[in-house]
Design a protein that fits this description.
Radius of gyration: 22 Å
Distance between the termini: 50 Å
Number of helices: 3
Order of helices and strands: EHEEEHH
Structural class: alpha+beta
Shape: elongated
Largest sheet: 4 strands, mixed
Strand content: 25-35%
Length: 127
């Protein structure tokens, strides 16, 4: 899983970058085979004026489905990251569950077709 972290309006420290990587690992690592990349954009909306202005925007590129987009704004950057990552994990889980409901037993059907084809090939060669 490829993770890209960018910052707008401030310098991105290695500590913040590692926090993002660690939190994403806890939250969405279970779906590593379905996620091609993750883009995290951190920004300071109001600049030096203060207030509830630290934004964390996460875009998870899901294989075979629409991207998961999460945006959270908090006064503390770490809280914004934590909340956005948690929401991204829950949203990704819902997406995966929906994909499974839409394609129930698809792999078992494909396996049955392959087995039937193999059995007919064996029968044709022995006859």
């Amino acid at each position: 899983m490829h993770i890209v972290t960018r910052a707008r309006g401030f310098d991105l420290s290695e500590e913040v970058r590692e926090h993002v990587r660690r939190r994403l690992g806890f939250s969405i690592d279970w779906a590593y085979d379905r996620v091609s990349s993750v883009l995290v954009v951190l920004s300071d909306v109001n600049g030096p004026r203060g207030g509830k202005d630290k934004r964390c925007r996460i875009q998870v590129a899901v294989t075979g489905a629409a991207d998961v987009l999460i945006d959270d704004t908090q006064a503390d950057l770490y809280v914004a990251i934590d909340r956005a990552v948690d929401r991204a994990g829950r949203t990704l889980a819902r997406h995966v569950a929906r994909q499974r409901q839409r394609q129930p037993g698809r792999s078992s059907e494909a396996r049955a077709v392959l087995l039937a084809g193999a059995q007919s090939d064996v029968a044709a060669t022995t006859a």
